[in-house]
Structure formats: structure tokens, C-alpha cells
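User: Run a structure prediction on this.
Assistant: Running it now.
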Amino acid sequence: MRRSIVALLLAGLMAAGLAAWAAAAEKAATAKPDAKPPVPKVVEEPDDGIHGLYAGKAGGANTEMPWPITSASAQVISQAGGGYKVNLLADGKKKAELAGKLEGTRVALAGGGGEKGAIENKKLTAEAAGLKFDLAYTTPKSPTDGAKPPPGAVVLLPFEEGKAPSLDEWTNTAWQTSTDGSMTVAKGDNFTQRHFGDFKLHLEFRIPFEPSGKGQGRGNSGVYIFNLYEIQILDSFGRPPAASECAAVYTQTPPKVNACFPPGLWQTYDITFRAARFDADGKKTTDAVVTVVQNGVTVQDQTVVKGPTGAARSKPEVKAGQIKLQDHQHPVKFRNIWIQKLRD
């Protein structure tokens, strides 16, 4: 049931975000790459009891419509200044947007068209678009969370609950390890010791809850393939897909849908990459191609990578290289990283 709700939510986000894709992608492509805004204060406890994903039912607000008539969900997104934005979805389509602030233990919600609602004790009720919503907080989990490395895979960051991982496969051992099995961004970027060509990479990441941040200032990091091509990591929960958002081929291609979980939850990337090809004279004959599955949803499907992304745009392309995890001054956590070398 939980997976079907998440899948329905993601389908709705795709429909709701289509109109914003082109403008957002154009804006991202012309923006100064890798600009680093002021780092917001991090709230160490990721669950404030309010932000996150809610799911349940919705039905007609009058007696002529049966209850329930549809599945329903909501994304509650923390905002700078202590407020919350709420996207209400029914049958996977965005129906209304509300906003509110915490007063005591309750968030009173209101929308520009007379919509109203409230959040309290991890329950969300609302009346909008002729529907009554009755939703409860839910915690989604990726189907590849905790995936075991297959035989022959190179384990880049071993994962075992209760044990801090070894950083032997990484160049920057200043990153902080924890007994939850993770390492946290600290004191610069981190590169794999080894070089790879074509590969399939599994990694898990946890974006911090940074409610005072905006845009690129929330949970920013990235997976850099060969230190050339970035798959963005960002708190993009509830935002329309764009070339600057999470799971984008940064500044080039937005994800097909927004598959992001709320900050504070573990998420997964399963990345399959085919490197660019070159002739005997070193001239590129074929662009690199990447497929990204985020939280079990294919968000990049055989996407052609036209060249280096963002700040790496002036660098020459290569047929093999290291994997880099970016330090963008946000304490993003990583765990359970392994890679399979692929052959034609």
C-alpha cells in the first residue's frame, strides 16, 4: 500500500510539474554553476513532527459525492521563517496549495482560493477543490534501501548497523563516520581511490533538515562521475523537476519526475553509466549515457550527457575516472556504497 501511494504521488508530481520544467531548466542552465549560498542552521533532529509525506483518503465535501472517491496525499514542506507549504494531491494530481505556521501544537492552513485545513499530531485534514482530505504522516522507504552488493562488486563504503564504516576506498578520511554505518560530508570533496569506466553504482544518502535554507541552500551535494558529470543531490521534496534539482544531470537534464523523499529520510540512487567513447586520435565519437533510479523510480532513462556539467564544463572528457562526492557545505550523509564494473 505504501509503495502504491508513493508511486501515485510521483505520477502526480510529473503532471503538476510539466509546465515548470522548461522555464526552470532554462533558468538553471544560465545560472552561475555551483554558487554556494550561506549555509543555513541545521536542525539535528530531522523530524519536527510536521514536515513530510502524508497519505490517506479524500472524498466529496457534499453529500452528493461518495466517500472515499479517490486516494490522496500531501507534501508538507518546511519554509524559511518557520512556515509550511502544503501540496494537496488526489489521484496523483495536484489539487491545491496551502500554507500556514505553527501555533502551539497546531498548524492552521489556508489557501488563496478559500481552502482551509490543519495539521496536528501528525494528522492533516483539509477542504479544497471540492474535496475533504483525511491524511496521516507516513514514512516511505526505497525498495533498494539496504541492497546487498552482488558478487564481484567493489564495496566502496561497507554498511553495517552499529559499526562505523571504513574509509579505505576514499581519499578524504576527514569525513565523519558514525556507528549508524554512515559517513558525513566534512572538510572537502571525497574521491574514490580507484578509477572506473562503465559501471553500475549503488549509494544511499540522507539530506539534512535545513528549514531556514532556500533553493540550492538546502542539503546540497552531488555525485560526480569522473569529476565531470554531476548527478545533483538536493532537498527537492515537493518541488517541480528542473535541471538544478535533485536527480538532475546538473544544468542539462531534469529528472522525469520528482522521486524525492522528505529530508531526514534515507534515499537511494542506482546509477548505470556508460562512458563516452573516443577514436584512436582521442576525438569523442559517442556521448556518455546515464540511467538513474531514485528510490525505485527511474528518473533518468538512458539520458545522453552532452558533456561536462556545471563548474566542470571546461574540463576534457575521459573514458575512465574517479567517483567524487561533493562537499557543498551541507552535512549530507552517505552509506552502503558499492559499484559493479560493466563491460560491453
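The chain is about 10% helix and 40% strand.
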